[in-house]
Amino acid sequence: MVSRELLEATPDPGATLVQVRGDSTSAGQDGISEAIASFAAEHRVNIALETADVRDPGGLRHLHMVVGNPEQPGASWLGEGYPGLSLDHRTEVHPWHEAADLDPRGTYHLFGEEAHATAFLDALSVYGLDGQIAPEYRTVEWFEVVRDATLFDAFTVALLCGVAGIATSVLLGARSYAVLRLHGVPPSRILLRDLGKLAPYWSAAAVTIALVMAGLLHTHGALPRWGLLLEVSLFYLSVFSTAGIAAHVAALALVHATGILPALKGRLAVRSAVVSTYAVRVPALVLVLGLTANLALSLQLLHGRGQAHEAFTEAGDISRFHFSESVDELQEQETTRAFGESLRALDAHGQLLLAAPGESGSVLGPTAVPEDLLLIVVNDTYLRRHPVLDAGGSPYGPSSDGGEVRVLVPEVHADLADVLEEEVGLWLRESWEADSGVPPRIRVETAPSQTGQRLFTYGATPLGTQSGVPFAQDPVVVAVPNGSAALHPFVHYHSYATMGAALLLDREGAVQAVEDQALPAYVDSVQPVALAAADGYREISAQVRMEAATLVAAFCVLLVTGVTVCVVYARAHGQRVLARHLHGWRFLSTHRSLVALEAALAVSFVGWAGWNTMGNLAFFETSPTAVPSGIAVRAVVLEPFMAAGISVSGLGLMLAVLALFHHRIVRETSAAA
């Protein structure tokens, strides 16, 4: 999984990433493609130009390869195909001559010594192109994938599960270890004996796994990736082996801390064993809480995406821009204006749909309007597809010939109508003035809209990411005419395009529009919103499955640590348990010390969760810019209740295990009598 995600992020982790930029005039010169091929042959390096697929940028990428050294990585990809590990993210490799008509600006991967990257940029500078070698923080290493939240949680839980299982198995064998000690076997030899017993099983498992992985790699044509898989596997093996041996040694130390005669009766050093066990149990509780909150959040996101399935299906070929790495050049004023004006032209011809949601605090700035009031900027094309109803239930039509901007205010916010009319007009004018421009004549009118309406946002967010629930409930609608002069080329059209709020109605026409408006340098493809939503739904579904499996494993850690505590308790207090049972003590009274310890842990855990939640909410209140989505806030608020449920579950597991040991003590003693 780690290797697969790494190869989805970068074609080859050993390649040097080079970003080439420049203006359209420089990029349009003849001879650049031939110069790159000559450079590769002269310096004996392989170079790949990476481009996203025009129709499926999220699931398919293209590599145009020029081979200058058959011995370097990537040389065999033209004939044998790309050795990928993902079924959802494909990579197609093409010979370099097919890149002759492509824009030479973009992302290059250089296979060879990193020093050649500087020479590569020097060679392109002859044509007026420049660029940069990606700094370390831009390159992707497999260890960064390991640190991903979901994978790291699974890794931590697996580590705790292994530690708890190994320690418990050693403690359960206290009597056999006491016999060895009685015969004078030193601790070091006992450890080597245990490891020797495990060696045949581990060797067989290692050989089996290696053969299976080699077969799978060969089947999928990814056998050249064996080195990457081996590197990642050795990392995990070393960590798990170190933790396992440390746990084994610690458990043996606890066994040896008890005298030989008490150990022959199965007794253990109670305090040390209990402290060691709770040192694993407490982190497991915290992990279970975090995993439960994450799973609850992911399930809400998954449910929200599921609710929007029909709306995305109806969207058909409506597509969003997918920007290349050269999008940074759009910050330049001249390029920005040209890009924005081209989008305005598309809007004027009815080829663009605007759906830009946001909160008033981020859109209008500090005003008398509540900062969390939902706004959505739309155009006439949006209103035709998604009618907004007036107070009487009739849909608002397109703007009149006057070109005024309409602010449709839900009846529930009717008291804000006058303020919104003034603030929206001020916001539009300031957008022009901030760029040293002269604002056009802008006329703003307000009108009431029916309460209870839910508008489809096509998944757009201010950050350009897909939103969990792509609907806005009772938003204030700022409706602008198609191609309105009120919208600024950069502040509005450019920003809406980068956040996925400026959508193209026709998929094939959109590709042609990108060519006609000279946008290929910045827009490498247009992606249907339905396809983007399907990709997002698949990713969240996979995340839910991973989080659910990790949560189950974390509960297994709680179960194993519960068993360990009960083993230590039962062996230390077996006679007392039997005596109290014979005297008619109730179960909870018999084990009141252990039950009290677990109850204190549960109360402390719930109290800590409540305190942590209050701290987070206080932070959100004092730092409005750090407030996450409403779904995430609800997950934070529910954490104390989740902690209470986890505590009850953990206590229930402990009592169930304790009951089994209780009946076992009574049964074995009765049988002996």
What's the gist of this structure?
By secondary structure, the protein is of the alpha+beta class. Helix 7 (about 150-170) runs antiparallel to helix 12, helix 12 runs antiparallel to helix 24 and helix 14 crosses helix 18 (about 490-500).
List key phrases describing it.
alpha+beta; 13% strand; 25 helices; eight-stranded mixed β-sheet; six-stranded mixed β-sheet; flat; 673 residues; 4 domains
Number of strands: 16
Sheet/helix structural class: alpha+beta
Shape summary: flat
The CA-CA distance between the termini, in Å, is 56 Å
Query: Average pLDDT across residues?
Result: 78
Reported for the largest beta sheet, the result is: 8 strands, mixed
Uncertain runs: 327-331
Strand content: 5-15%
Description:
The structure is a single chain. The chain has 673 residues and is α+β, with helices and mostly antiparallel strands. It folds into 4 domains: 140 residues, no CATH class; 128 residues, no CATH class; 181 residues, no CATH class; 194 residues, no CATH class. The chain contains 25 helices and 16 strands. An 8-stranded mixed β-sheet has the order 11-10-14-9-8-15-7-16. It has a 6-stranded mixed β-sheet with strand order 4-3-2-5-1-6. A two-stranded antiparallel ribbon has the order 12-13. Helix 4 links the parallel strand 3 and strand 4. Helix 20 runs parallel beside helix 25.
